[in-house]
Amino acid sequence: MLRAMPNNTPKPPVISDVARRAGVSVPTVSRVLNGAAYVSEEKRSKVMKAIEELDFRPSAAARALVARQPKLIAVIAGNTSRYGYAETIRGIEESARGAGYTVSITVVESAEDEIVARAVSLVLDQPLAGVVVLKFDPPGVAALHRIPKSIPTVSISGVREVGVPQAVLAEADAAAEVVDYLLGLGHETVQHVRVPPSRKEDGRTTGWRRALVAHGARVPVPVDAGWEPESGREIGRALAADPAVTAVFCGNDEIAMGVIRGLTEAGKSVPGDVSVVGFDDHPLARMWTPPLTTVDQDFAGLGSRAYGLLETLIAGGKPKKFSSERPTVIIRESTAPPPA
Amino acid sequence: MLRAMPNNTPKPPVISDVARRAGVSVPTVSRVLNGAAYVSEEKRSKVMKAIEELDFRPSAAARALVARQPKLIAVIAGNTSRYGYAETIRGIEESARGAGYTVSITVVESAEDEIVARAVSLVLDQPLAGVVVLKFDPPGVAALHRIPKSIPTVSISGVREVGVPQAVLAEADAAAEVVDYLLGLGHETVQHVRVPPSRKEDGRTTGWRRALVAHGARVPVPVDAGWEPESGREIGRALAADPAVTAVFCGNDEIAMGVIRGLTEAGKSVPGDVSVVGFDDHPLARMWTPPLTTVDQDFAGLGSRAYGLLETLIAGGKPKKFSSERPTVIIRESTAPPPA
DNA sequence: TTGAAAGCGCTAACAA
DNA sequence: TTGTTAGCGCTTTCAA
Predict the structure, then answer these.
(1) How far is CA A86 from CA A89, A93, B26, B98, B198, in A?
(2) How many CA atoms does the CB half-sphere of B184 hold within 13 Å?
(3) In angstroms, rounded to a whole number, what is the distance separating the alpha carbons of residues B283 and B83?
(4) Is A236 a residue whose pLDDT tops 90?
(5) Of A42, A134, B100, B151, which has the highest C-beta tally within 10 A?
(6) What percent of chain B has a predicted confidence (pLDDT) above 90?
């Protein structure tokens, strides 16, 4: 553990050091620092010089203490490095940075009470302007429940839910469109391989089911995959054994790639024997063999919209309850009519 | 832009509110907060109760001001969402969180002076315990130069460099090993497709060149790729036209996948006609067709080691100059002897 | 245009 | 065991 020991670096200069060196009062230094108020050219330059010489930086802690709104936005997520998460965070950070905010990220490793409490508490220990919670998974959902109402908060999700303002990517509609497309190609039904859901059922699964039912098609039991492509591979191998499956809709591209690999290893051809669709439009989806039919999700835009909602909230405004957008289906070469 | 408007959320409770409600003095509240000193069971429970009721959280800003070390670590990077970056950040965050730190991320979009200055300034405006700079690219390198020496700082890189303490993944050695392996298979030389380097030459290129020279093999002119797999594809197509290239060593897996795709599209077989090696062991590398021979880089471990260095620095200790580790070559199926 | 004084929310030192 | 008194480094009145 870290001990509170004296730091070996020299104590950094403070504002009074600058004032003394420049021969002015502390508030005057503060004035030139903030570009505000009137300061004579003479003093201003003296102060600037002193700042340079001392390599002075105002203490962020002191500034934060004094009235000023904190300039930190916390992002809470169950994961930071998987494609969708990373891109969403990128979108948040980019927008936030543009407005002068820094973003912190903290991951909640599981939905277990103690883990969630510890992570949230860590987050709240910083001086925060607001928080964005990625509700892509159970840890995210659990974390949201623990954020005090007094802190401006928005969430990000794949489905509309009541609660704090929310940026959403309307997955269900896109999923339904995928199924429509596949059924239109002549497939009798569409198998679904889903990623770990954030709740009982995620938007992709809901949309898939809805479309199947709307078409009067048989609704197969969804197969659960993990987050790793490897789990898709195993499922692909298993699916290959069932001649009834001619079309598979996967919860994300990585899983789809794994499924394709498993199918191929088991001797099936994609899309000749079975069509496979992913979700997300991962950068490698178009490089895949065959290039993957998938759904483009603008994660960065999603993050950016979440920031927008939060900004309104922080400013004391009343943002829309939802900022919703519809992902786009991208048809490439992993889908075709079923074998005759 | 965000205006400094009054917030609509109620002003959060402060320590004096708790003290008043509990009928004790402010320092007493502080004492129970910090678990220190003697406080009677009676008052302690009164205070706890007041804290609960008010949902009070001590102001991090005030705490930071008063001697206590801030609990925020800033990560500065040229990117946050690409595989290696995201994983490295994950490693940092995980270790930092374990020790009670939150991590902020801010990206530096280019090495342009103004951009770098703005980003760094944003970072320094937070009360920081220390900073980790990802020197994987020019923006990262530029940012490092702007961090004041008074702030505990470590960097992360693929090659050893003088300066602040550094966590390194010894790319050059691994790259050399790849070339040794390929040459051992019988290839006359190895073409190199590199990702945008952080400096004149990155470790992967250095190791590749070194091994080639050591074997007395011809050293081809490296081909520059971008970060997108798509750029690899174009290069692959171009490379297919040159019968002299039978082995290609790529700067990362995404590029390698693009190269393989380009090669394949141009009618070459991998590894029959040309062998391709990637770098990073991306999660999809083993799913690829053919499964990719690559180099496993433990990015999360790298991030974790960087945190370790920083922790020592923050505690006032003197960390090693380098925490170096050697990536491992992973041979899969995208490499074979050259065609007869 | 400038400085003196007050105070942000908290912890540390000192008495009691 | 507890309260009183001082600040931490800065910004913000308020006078001058």
Answers:
(1) 5, 10, 43, 21, 22
(2) 8
(3) 9
(4) yes
(5) A134
(6) 79
Please count the other Cβ atoms lying within 10 Å of the Cβ belonging to residue B221: 7
pLDDT tens digits, one per residue of B213-271: 999 999 999 999 999 999 999 999 999 999 999 999 999 999 999 999 999 999 999 99
Residues 6+ apart with CB under 8 A from B209: B219
Q: Kindly indicate the confidence band of residue A37, based on its pLDDT and cuts at 50, 70 and 90.
A: low
Q: Do A264 and B289 touch (CB under 8 A)?
A: yes
Nucleotide showing the shortest C1' distance to residue A37 CA? C1
Chain B hits for A64, Cβ within 8 Å: 60-61, 64, 127
Residue type, B103: V
Is the pTM higher than 0.85? The answer reads yes
Q: What is the CA radius of gyration of chain B?
A: 26
Helix (H) or strand (E) holding B178: helix B171-184
pLDDT of residue B67: 63
Q: Which is nearest to B244 in space by CA: B225, B279, B268?
A: B268
| Residue position matching structure tokens 């050259």 | B338
What does the alpha-carbon distance between residue B54 and residue B40 come to, in Å, rounded to a whole number?
A: 21
Tens of pLDDT along B12-55?
789 999 999 999 999 899 999 887 668 888 889 999 999 999 88
Pull the structure tokens for residue A107. Answer: 């991951």
Domains and CATH numbers, chain B: 15-67 (1.10.260.40), 72-169+299-326 (3.40.50.2300), 171-298 (3.40.50.2300)
Interface-testing mutation among A53, A105, A297, with chain B (most B C-beta atoms within 10 A): A105
Lowest mean pLDDT among A79-93, A122-136, B101-115, B286-300: A122-136
Q: Where are the alpha helices (DSSP H) in A58-186?
A: 60-65, 83-98, 113-124, 138-146, 171-184
A239-261: pLDDT as tens digits:
999 999 999 999 999 999 999 99
Q: Report CA torsion sign: A320, A321, A323, A326.
A: negative
Note the strand D nucleotides within 7 A of protein beta carbons: 1-5, 7-13
Q: Are strands B102-107 and B72-77 parallel, antiparallel or unpaired?
A: parallel
CB of A31 within 7 Å of some strand C atom: yes
